Amino acid sequence: MSERTIITGSGIPLIGNDIDTDRIIPARFLRCVTFDGLGEQVFADDRSAMNGRHPFDLPQYQNAKILVVNANFGCGSSREHAPQAISRWGIDAIVGESFAEIFSGNCLTMGIPCVTTTSGNIKSIQNLLTENPNISMILDLENLKIQCGYYSSTIKMDSGARNMLTTGKWDTCGLLTKNIDEIKTTATKLPYLTW
Question: Which residues in 24-124 belong to E strands, given as ranges?
Answer without folding.
Answer: 66-68, 93-96, 114-116
